[in-house]
Amino acid sequence: MEHPENNPEYAGLTVNSGVAPVSNINPYLKRGRFVRKQLSASDYVEGILNGNVTILGQAVTLVESTIPAHQQVAQEVIEKCLPYSGKSIRVGISGVPRAGKSTSIDEFGIHLLREKGGKLAVLAIDPSSERTKGSILGDKTRMEKLSVHPDSFIRPSPSAGSLGGVARKTRETIILCEAAGFDKILVETVGVGQSETACHSMVDFFLLIQLAGTGDELQGIKRGIMEMADGIVINKCDGNNVDKCQLAATQFRNALHLFPMPESGWLPQVLTYSGFYGYGIREIWEMVYQYVDFVKANGYFEHRRNEQSKYWMYESIREQLQGSFFHNPTIADMLVAEERAVLAGQRTSFVAAKQLLDAYFALLR
Amino acid sequence: MEHPENNPEYAGLTVNSGVAPVSNINPYLKRGRFVRKQLSASDYVEGILNGNVTILGQAVTLVESTIPAHQQVAQEVIEKCLPYSGKSIRVGISGVPRAGKSTSIDEFGIHLLREKGGKLAVLAIDPSSERTKGSILGDKTRMEKLSVHPDSFIRPSPSAGSLGGVARKTRETIILCEAAGFDKILVETVGVGQSETACHSMVDFFLLIQLAGTGDELQGIKRGIMEMADGIVINKCDGNNVDKCQLAATQFRNALHLFPMPESGWLPQVLTYSGFYGYGIREIWEMVYQYVDFVKANGYFEHRRNEQSKYWMYESIREQLQGSFFHNPTIADMLVAEERAVLAGQRTSFVAAKQLLDAYFALLR
Fold first, then answer.
1. Would the ipTM clear 0.85, i.e. be above it?
2. By CB distance 3.0 to 4.6 Å, which of A144, A301, B29, B48 could disulfide with A295?
3. Best mutation site among A222, A245, A259, A348 for testing chain B: the one with the most B CBs within 10 Å?
4. In which domain, by residue range, is A55 found?
5. What pTM value is reported for the model?
């Protein structure tokens, strides 16, 4: 049976096809109930360009589908939307679990729509996510203000899979959202693993949510992430916690001075806020817009987007080359033995690699 | 004409072959001058295991040679030395140019040999290095005390090439040095590019040399390097500079607290020293040995070495898979056009990658 996730029908409301069922052999009548007309790539593109969020949702479901026929339509839709994409501000948001990411994004988004207008899409990269109907609702419920806002579009992370696959789908979804007129994109990611690098590689501004204190909270942040941040914001700066947060902000500011200046020429800023009470959120967006003006003026904005496009082309090549190698059953078997020999000190890492590569290329011939 | 770099004869003094030339057809008489006997793999291994540094030097030259016949012998030598390797402490040392790395390594090495005895090899990873006779002498001259010490072996970075190639040769040289009884290995690297990651991935302790001040010196350090360090040492802590260095040390210590605890469970230490006057060097080695005791006790020492062996196997596979793809002339031509299409917004990064991969696998068949 087809998994509901791969069926575009489940993505949203029924689209009026303009065709009524006339008989039992009507192709749109399936499993005894009325089924809407399958949309063509042009239908999707037209709907997306008209800003129809139902069709946008269905198109994203196609993008996320692993069924070849869906993928074919999806790629055609993406290609046709590509010329209409790119005209948004893309902001990545990361932070450890319990940093209050969802509440913060809800507040950030509502503030942004109120002050700047336009339309906001909230996407996610989380390769570990087991997406079910439940967690979609869960995500939307956690963003209780945005989820009912008419100008927002919330989409949880694509289903669990390789990071490359999940990242690709999110990047393609950005294209569709932009073509549908969403001029503000937030990409949420979790504070662990390689997801941050992927997220950082598709946004214009990377915001890191931290908490005050050097306790366990910080231990969940992967090494290297702090250096990716264009801005660090410390949540829960309210009540008794204000002094502690301001001290933490000073510590982060001092620490950032020890790092080399980022390529953007922008010294990352450190701010405090309260997602729960909504304090300090105006300043966060002022920082983001100040950054965007700064890097648009010095050419880095365009440069970063171009580098990202190249990055994903090369990254996709690397991932698929490696996939072809490591998923080859003969190689996978050999790999176990070679790794054991290397660890036992019977063979150098390089000789083991060479034997595996020789075998692989012989298999391809 | 054969490049001198690829000729093992140039690596050191002549080895007495025990065979005298008897006639013009004597195979050891070549180009009108006396040439020593070509050593067999067993000869090299025997010499290395006896601690003969001349033969060690020649074997390293073989390892660095790109001539297939040399590589074949080199791999046999390495394989036979492998069971005798691994019994050293390997310390990586990085820092920006002008941080005083060479003077520091000279002092570090002399101190270590005086206090702990044993034998010390100093190797390097610098893929940008254009190795010539001149710079070999240059390196040795810069380490003026170590270069004349009977228990030291100094070898500059292998010739310019891919980082993977350079790193591989350095890693193989470590094996030969250890088999020759060198129980202390220092691997120097420059403060830019990916060389630090490569160096970090072959040592037990990664030491980062910093300077006080937030001026231009620090801008040369690549982002992410500070988080690799097991210890940070601030040079030039002498004369008027002492207060500034101690302030910098405090700042680094505070900054390190903002990072997650490393997997080793060891909180990186920050010390000050003066390479020129030789102050504070005892404390640096005490830190290194304290670290080694700590990670040997908690099992991380063995774990890190195993992870490194696996890392280099996988890294070598990745590098060669990509080399096969990107060095393919048809693909290289296509790549230019695809990259242009991606940057012009005519094609997504993923579609471009797919077209290239399809072409590549068709070519291999």
1. no
2. A301
3. A348
4. 4-82
5. 0.79
